Amino acid sequence: MPDDFVENYRAYKQKRVIKQAAREEAKKYSKYANLRIKGSSDEGIEELLIFHTHSIEKGLSHPHFRPNFGKNALTKLKANLEEFNQLGLDKDSFSYQNAISVLRSYKEKHQNMQIETPNFDSLFGNINLASASMMAGAKKFANSLNDGVDFKKVETSRYTQREFADGPLDEELYQEALSMAMKSPSVCNRQPWHVFFTQNKAKIEQLISIQSGFKGYGLPPSLSIVTVDRRAFLGPYERNEPYIDGGIFLMNFDMCLTSVGLASCILNLMLPTNELDKLRNILKIDDAQVMIAMVAVGQPKQQLLVAKSARKDSATIFTEIQ
């Protein structure tokens, strides 16, 4: 049998496997993902509470505070809390306490500024917020150099920062962080990552506009786009590996930026294909590259407001199998 025929037939079979696997993954995603304003499961409701809570936190940490902001997020949070109560879920859970806490922070922020909140009161006036914790909201944050400190200090001192000091990025520090990030583990040490970097203000403005998750903030001094090369992977069963390796590199890169004293904000690229194609055209990135995320990077401000982004207790995500 001719070698070409064998290779073509093998490729044909692998394509069929990929298509079938994609259909199966799509079916699972459709079953478990939250595709509407209310949760698709108990876990879905809790994740939606966390999602909308953080939307409000970002507003509370914004440098140009907008009174009575977040009507859409507040309305959705109200619907999720009602669903949570109707199902009799645990009010001591992280997601519920986090949501109630951000409502308290929202109300107190307005009270301290002597601003009335008619929309908020109509939605949550019957909820006792006085006993809510202060785990959620915004807080003042002072950057400090992390030279010579251990990883725990770097980990606990990292915050997403959407504001940067005036002036250009220290490229020497940036390259130091990038060099350290190359220690990231990858499948069979393939190291399939690539970082597209720009300080071109016109391009940054275009990219930020398409991504649409950085509204209300000034342009960052630089943008890094992390991608993974599909060509590094073999056969149909590694179809998810670009996102695994890309995510590992992305997080490690971000921690390395923190370790050298730079401020950063990861911006997701969960966009329709036509919007991703616009990014590709601006950056001259071909289809072989899986676009993982953008990272805004700059010099840190001495002090700024950041979202508290409270974390679940590690015990809630740990299961020991005997």
TrEMBL record:
Where on the tree of life does the source sit, at the highest rank? Bacteria
- State if Oxidoreductase is listed as a keyword: yes
- What keywords tag this UniProt record? Oxidoreductase
Family statement: Belongs to the nitroreductase family.
Any GO molecular function: oxidoreductase activity
UniProt protein name = Nitroreductase
Chain segments annotated as transmembrane: none
Pfam families annotated for this entry?
Nitroreductase
| Residue ranges annotated for the Nitroreductase domain, each copy included | 157-207
UniProt xrefs under InterPro entries: Nitroreductase (IPR029479), Nitroreductase-like (IPR000415)
